[in-house]
Design brief:
With 485 residues, the protein is of the alpha+beta class. It folds into three domains: 115 residues, Integrase, DNA-binding domain (Double Stranded RNA Binding Domain, 2-Layer Sandwich), CATH 3.30.160.390; 101 residues, no CATH class; 205 residues, Intergrase catalytic core (hpI Integrase, Chain A, Orthogonal Bundle), CATH 1.10.443. 45% of the residues lie in helices and 12% in strands. The strands form four sheets. Strands 3-4-5-6 form a four-stranded antiparallel β-sheet, covered by helices on one side. The protein has a three-stranded antiparallel β-sheet with strand order 9-10-11, covered by helices on one side. Strands 1-2 form a two-stranded antiparallel ribbon. Helix 10 packs across helix 14 and helix 15 packs antiparallel against helix 16.
């Protein structure tokens, strides 16, 4: 009889399920110090209605695993504003009936000695691992890894300008706020089409579609260059066992390319110079420096002051004697063909380069930030073209300016030196072309052997440009006999 009374007393102490009115009107309690505190109201079987000091309500399940002295709590979800008969979902708004059903489910697990908080923690960790694995296996992650690790075929590694151009085609650009890291471009590249996709999901059809879009938008050359970059990228990924086979290995160039032979005419060159002079620093001066040196755009754009000896250099010649004069030494690490290049500076080039402003403490000749070479070249080129056309139409109102690139200035420089009577060997050295007839020791010897002739060529070219700009005729240089080795 006593045992029965004890059971009845225990049942009376069990909390009853909260009525809807009680749930709606539940308020947080106030402690002895008059402070409103978080309050838990039991609903039975470990379920509690939690009322925060600000009045917000949620459901929690409290339990104790067998053999453990400490109790644990699992937050089930916020109180739903309206009742629902939908299956309850952990973390979602829950009505009283949904909360009770969810608590009953977890009570069954506890009765089987299963800790629902540990199960949920492991599920979260698994989801996080899967998300990380998925992110690591995307095209985006693979491209970033490729740009970081790919060294090219040369011992000295990939040139910075080549890596930047590769990144451009793939759809990335340097992150200005995090040196050494990359940021997605907003206006093109491979990642505009493939970002977020698993690397292994890319098919030949995907590549064909991407390249066809470029060709159809009249960007055939870009399509060809993109394919070249993709072939290198996917071949690298295959070697690193990231994919089984390259989806672009069997693809041919999607667009036909014609060899460019364009160079600026004398009136166009004069108009370019005047337009660049008006534009000033940095882009206008960059164009003028390229005109006078025949340099590649990025070789000049990225040039630090340390490569220039404005006060004069002294170079010992293999044939005896020395050559002296202002000199730009382009190191092999920055030259396109991996071959160091000596550029004697004409008086005109020296004057322009010496007067370039120094931005902050930067060592770069052409910069606006003081940290990176100038950018925004496309828009600057558009403004320069417009100014050139305005100059040309002063004498011919119907003049049509053909599309040209900074690289065309090298052809203009080359053809100009030929017209001035310089031999092809000297011109090739002025352009730092790697002739197949000179290699090894002979190539090193030739670089110094032609230094004096190069100085004469650069000076003659500068006088020619000055004559075109200022309307003065320049006598043709008489071709000299080549020095014998």
């Amino acid at each position: 009889m006593a045992e029965k009374l004890t059971t009845q007393a225990a049942e009376k102490k069990k909390p009853k399920k909260l009525a809807g009115f009680t749930i709606d009107n539940a308020k947080p309690k106030t402690n002895d110090k008059g402070k409103v505190v978080r309050t838990e109201i039991p609903d039975g079987r470990g379920l509690y209605l939690v009322v925060q000091p600000n009045g917000s309500k949620s459901w929690a399940f409290r339990f104790r695993i067998k053999g453990s002295k400490a109790s644990k709590k699992l937050t089930l979800g916020p109180l739903a504003e309206v009742d629902s008969k939908a299956p309850p979902v952990l973390g979602h708004p829950l009505s009283s009936s949904q909360a009770r059903a969810l608590a009953a489910r977890y009570r069954e697990e506890v009765d089987r000695d299963i800790d629902p908080t540990a199960v949920r923690k492991e599920a979260k960790a698994k989801a996080k691992r899967e998300a990380k694995d998925a992110a690591d296996n995307t095209v985006d992650a693979a491209i970033v890894e490729f740009l970081k690790r790919y060294k090219g075929r040369k011992k000295q590694g990939l040139r910075d300008s080549t890596r930047l151009l590769t990144a451009h085609y793939l759809g990335l650009r340097p992150d200005p706020e995090k040196p050494g890291e990359w940021r997605k471009r907003t206006n093109g590249g491979v990642l505009k089409q493939w970002s977020g996709r698993p690397l292994a999901s890319i098919t030949k059809r995907d590549a064909i579609t991407l390249l066809d879009r470029l060709v159809d938008s009249h960007n055939g050359v870009t399509a060809n260059r993109t394919l070249t970059v993709l072939k290198t990228f996917f071949a690298w990924a295959v070697k690193r066992d990231m994919i089984a086979a390259s989806p672009v290995a069997a693809l041919d160039a999607p667009a036909e390319e014609k060899s460019r032979e364009h160079f600026l005419t004398d009136p166009e060159l004069a108009a370019l110079w005047r337009a660049a002079d008006a534009a000033g620093y940095p882009f206008g001066r960059l164009m003028q420096a390229i005109v006078l040196t025949g340099a590649r755009r990025d070789e000049m754009r990225e040039a630090p002051r340390s490569e220039f000896e404005f006060e004069g250099a002294s170079v010992a010649l293999p044939t005896g004697g020395t050559w002296q004069g202002p000199l730009w030494t382009l190191p092999e690490a920055r030259s396109k063909n991996g071959r160091a290049h000596l550029v004697p500076l004409s008086a005109m080039a020296l004057e322009i380069l010496q007067k370039l402003p120094r931005v902050g403490k930067s060592s770069l000749l052409f910069t606006t930030t003081g940290e990176t070479p100038i950018s925004g070249l496309s828009k600057a080129k558009e403004r320069l073209d417009a100014a050139m056309l305005a100059e040309l139409r002063k004498t011919d109102p119907n003049y049509v300016l053909k599309k040209w690139t900074p690289h065309d200035l090298r052809r203009t420089f080359s053809s100009g030196l030929q017209r001035l009577g310089f031999p092809i060997e000297v011109i090739e050295e002025c352009l730092n072309h790697k002739s197949g007839t000179r290699s090894g020791v002979a190539g090193v010897y030739a670089r110094y052997r032609y230094l004096a002739e190069k100085a004469q060529a650069f000076e003659a070219w500068a006088r020619h440009v000055d004559g075109l700009v200022n309307g003065r005729a320049v006598d043709k240089v008489i071709q000299f006999a080549e020095a014998q080795p």
